Amino acid sequence: MCGISGIVGSSSNTPERHRQVRRMMDVLAHRGPDGEGFLWMDPAGNARSTHDDASTRIPDGSRVAAAFRWLKIQDLDARSRQPMPSRDSRAWILFNGEIYNHGALRAELEALGEQFATRSDTEVALAAYRRWGTSAFARC
Hints:
Helix content is 28%, strand content 21%. With 140 residues, the chain is α+β, with helices and mostly antiparallel strands. It folds into two domains: 1-71, DNA polymerase, Y-family, little finger domain (Dna Ligase, domain 1), CATH 3.30.1490; 79-140, no CATH class. Strand 2 (35-41) and strand 3 (47-51) form a beta hairpin. Helix 2 packs across helix 3 (121-132). The chain is globular, with a radius of gyration of 15 Å. The two termini are 19 Å apart.
């Protein structure tokens, strides 16, 4: 069931923005009782995330403040938490849904040399995007 919320603007690091993101997550608590994660990104694309830490302050210079509540269904491993970074941390994903053919996509990506740390469809979606760009979505 999960839930995603976020704020994009010229500056997301004010105390009020932090309270807004926290309130949005509290409203979504019923959609994802198994945990929460936060992502902050600055204008240069540098990102930082935390999980299950309601007191974390949004870093200075952040333009994006996003948050995720999850219900663990696909992969119960803590490494499947979101926001999830790519292996090089240059791309991040917040994903709500299910990729029904993620097993086939995983096998195709593994044949191309991709390595996976989890069994989650989220990690497959991120690797597919990194490999094929937006054409990855047509494969799902």
